[in-house]
């Protein structure tokens, strides 16, 4: 098992991945003599349960949460977080397609392949509607397009956050 988090594997080594049982050594640890105290010691049963729990959480946790605001009509990534330490605002490049329409793109291999639809939402008490969908770049799913409309159903530059799954 590598010391590198699967979320932080470089592109040349296969790119970022979601943690699964194989990546963390499986869930078939067995006890060896002398056997540990089941109450106070780390046991094989505890290790196997932890491995299954970790893999289950990795299947549903967003690979990144990205917050976008507008400065002078231009979309700006103000923050981004995720399981990989490299997931920061600078990882994402916003492309403005007009009012209320922006695409966020990340480098190939920087995030795992999406496993569920992105979840966008408007920030604060902003009134409006928002939708998002993944878009392939050169055949690789590594961008998300977000469209927003205000309360009058008009395309508008509204601050938003999108969870990438």
Which descriptors apply to this entry?
165 residues; mainly beta; 4-stranded antiparallel beta sheet
Instruction: Give the strand tally.
Output: 8
| Structural class by SSE content | mainly beta
Give the termini separation: 25 Å
Q: Spell the H/E element sequence.
A: HEEEEEEEE
Shape: elongated
Uncertain segments are: none
Helix coverage percent: 10-25%
Q: How many DSSP H or I helices?
A: 1
Task: Estimate the mean pLDDT confidence.
Answer: 87
Largest sheet, in brief, is:
4 strands, antiparallel
Radius of gyration: 20 Å
Which sequence of strands runs across the widest sheet? Answer: 2-1-8-5
Which range does the strand content fall in?
Answer: 25-35%
How would you concisely characterize the structure shown here?
With 165 residues, this protein is mainly beta. It has 1 helix and 8 strands; from the N terminus they run αββββββββ. The chain has a 4-stranded antiparallel beta sheet, with no helix packed on it. Strands 3-4-7-6 form a 4-stranded antiparallel beta sheet, with no helix packed on it.
